[in-house]
Amino acid sequence: MSELETKLQSCFAGVFPALPPNKITEASTLTVEDWDSIAHEMLITTIQEEFQVQLRDDEVEHLTSYKAWLERLK
Amino acid sequence: MSLLYPTEAGDRFARPAAKSSLFDRMKLLEALKIKDAPGGGEPFSAFLACGFTPLHLQVFFTAYLRQRLPDRLVDVSTGLYDDLAGSLALTRTLNLDGLFVALEWPDLDPRLGLRQLGGWSPAKLPEIAESAVSKLKILEAALYAVAERTPIVLSPPLWEMPPLFYTTQQQLHPEAAEIEAQVAAFLARATRRGVRVLRPTRIAGVPSFDIRSYLKSGIPYPPQFSSGLAQQAVNLLLPPSPKKGLITDLDNTLWKGIVGEVGAAEVSWDLAGKAQIHGIYQAMLQSMADAGVLIGVASKNDPVPVQEAMQREDFLLSPASVFPVEANWAPKSESIARILKAWNIGEDAVVFVDDSPMEVAQVASAFPSITSLCFPSDDAEAAWQLLYQLRNLFGKSALTGEDSLRVDSLRNSAERDQALESSGLGIEEFLEHSQAVVRIEPVRVDDARALDLINKTNQFNLNGRRWTEAEWRKLLEMPSTLAVAVTYEDKYGRLGKIAVLAGTRQGSLLRVHCWVMSCRAFSRRIEYQCLQTLFNRCELDRIQFDFFQTSKNGPLRDFLLPLTSNATGPSAAMQGDLVLARNDFDARCPALFHAVRADELLLPVASSPQNP
Fold it and tell me: What share of chain B in percent tops pLDDT 70?
């Protein structure tokens, strides 16, 4: 697993503590019940802080799955 | 060893002041992990009241509370968005251990925020100011209703007021001035009502406002600012125990110059001598001494020139405020050991300041629990930061009458010990002739000194349990609670309030949950008098102690064990509850010679002074 993936999975684990580690890569707003607007906001801030990036509002709206985040951060 | 300059964070072995402590703060991911880590214990209920989206601030507040209270089940609730007054009203109905109120401009009038478009016409400005003042009164009343029983931390508006006024950003508009003045007056009143108002001026290098996040989600503070703010709020809500004593070097620390070389007249601490920072340090130490901090001197010097310099008329630190003065050529660690003995306090409550990194290192090595700091005599900026660091190490929320008694009390104890040594009297005769008066009275809820005493981790602490202000209040308000404070004086002077005992009554049984006595009150049999008075006045047959052995409370164990050994066996003293029957106490209590003043307790004492 790349450093990026490890870090991203750590962010997901922090925001979704109930999500089993082996389900993180498949996580999306459709599969994770706790992924509501509040959690989405928390995820954005956590990832921005950890990766030291500032993403535009219009693009983070569409980052609704682990895979989408991974692609964006690559 | 890396040495040792002050920082904002107050680290013991600190980095240079120029480096911000920004990176010491928790990041959001770390806070989430701490917040969601499994835990348990007694609940600690806190509330974050704010009109904005609390999201990150709530996470950080919870995480810092959990860090501070690892054995507690921390829960932080929040109120409704845009309804600070409603949240405060809600907190009145809750049983809280702490409340953090984050006030912002829109809480005073929505037009002072950015998420409602009410218009900023010049014609509306007086009305906006008027409305803000009215809202402030409502919030103030709601706040005080909670403050009576819950510890509160209040942060004032932290982001800049929006540009609704027609003046330039550099020019103060009358209505803006009016709003800010009303807020300042409100904060001043709140501090007098016991609300701890936060001064977040030290969240350096981090912007306080993120307009993008605020417009999108109603979250005004960037995460790093939220982290710093939450950290400070927790520090005010659950303040760490302040240090008690400062030991200072003299040459190039308390003054500029080597007094043994240039003489007392030539050392300096003023502008003329290009040594003003040393004068400021002297003034600072006097201010700390006046607030109850013990100030001692450890200096490699001949005592005569030291005494001459300290007697100079322009010396800003009253010699009476400094005790003891160790001026000799022995290693500093030996002087410090003597000072610690005279003060009778733990190493971890002491700060040592010296300009020499080598001396600092030597003391740090001999006393690892002492906070050892360099006085940067050639760097005014670093010395200036040191003064702030000292305030942070010794700061307390409020002063009590006892604070001003401490140095006198220590001197009196030293005189008493000398008198005992030179009197040729046995201890019984000496105590009999000490004219000791013990006053035992109920603890008042607003007695800050009592809670201060209870949370001392000293040698006479029943179990080392730390009580939050809310828990303490709850205990005192229970009808079954019997809580007493003990004050002592004898012909050698006043010790002031030196012990607090609190427990709950069940008929003729008193179960003692906490009992702490200041170490400077040892050897006077005050602890026996305390129990005897409770047995007599409160018609008790048994006293049960929630004893727990800590690393420090050996003297208390050694006091209780012989009194209770028949009833419970010696091993019980190591394990938990101890029960003392009245008959056992009467049989084992030594002669007591105190005059007792305990008029506010339930029943009269048979005679006083008295022998069992």
Answer: 90
Q: Nearest 5 degrees, angle CA B574-CA B344-CA B392?
A: 100
Which chain A residue has the Cα nearest residue B56?
A42
For B96, B231, B424, the CA distances from B140, given in Å and listed in that order, are: 19, 24, 63
Report which residue type is found at B48.
L
pLDDT, averaged across chain A? 94
Set of chain B residues whose Cβ sits within 8 Å of the Cβ of A55 = none
**A&B contacts, CB < 8 Å:** 35
Asked if A70 and A4 count as a contact pair (C-beta separation under 8 A), the reply is: yes
- Between CA B473 and CA B152 the distance in angstroms is 14
Residue B101's closest CA among B64, B68, B150? B150
Interatomic CA distance for residues B594 and B435, integer angstroms: 7
Cβ-defined contacts of B280-285 (< 8 Å, 24+): B280/B383, B280/B387, B281/B253, B281/B254, B281/B375, B281/B383, B281/B387, B282/B254, B282/B255, B282/B315, B282/B316, B282/B317, B283/B316, B283/B317, B284/B387, B284/B390, B285/B246, B285/B248, B285/B254, B285/B317, B285/B321
B429 vs B433: CA distance, rounded Å: 6
B217 min Cα distance to partner chain A (Å): 8
**In a 3-state reduction of DSSP, which class is residue B296?**
strand
The verdict on a CB contact (< 8 Å) between A42 and B33 is: no
The CA-CA-CA angle for residues B184, B241, B20, to 5°, reads 65
Instruction: Answer whether residue B444 shows pLDDT above 50.
Output: yes
Pick B28's closest partner by Cβ from A38, A46, A57.
A46
Instruction: List chain A residues with CB under 8 Å of B217.
Output: 41
Q: Are B103 and B157 in contact (CB under 8 A)?
A: yes
Per-residue model confidence (pLDDT) at position B413? 72
Helix, strand, coil % over all residues of chain A, rounded to 5: 60, 5, 35
Asked if A14 lies within 8 A of B212 by C-beta distance, the reply is no
Mean pLDDT along residues B4-25? 39
What digits encode the pLDDT tens for the residues B286-317? 999 999 899 999 999 999 999 999 999 999 99
| pTM beyond cutoff 0.80 | no
- The percent of chain B in helix, strand and coil, each rounded to the nearest 5, is 45, 20, 40
d(CA B325, CA B233): 38
Highest-confidence range of B16-30, B246-260, B451-465, by mean pLDDT? B246-260
| Cα–Cα distance for residue pair B48/B77, rounded to 1 Å | 6
Measured CA to CA, the distance from residue B69 to residue B600 in angstroms comes to 36
Which tens digits make up the pLDDT trace of B469-488? 888 988 998 999 999 999 99
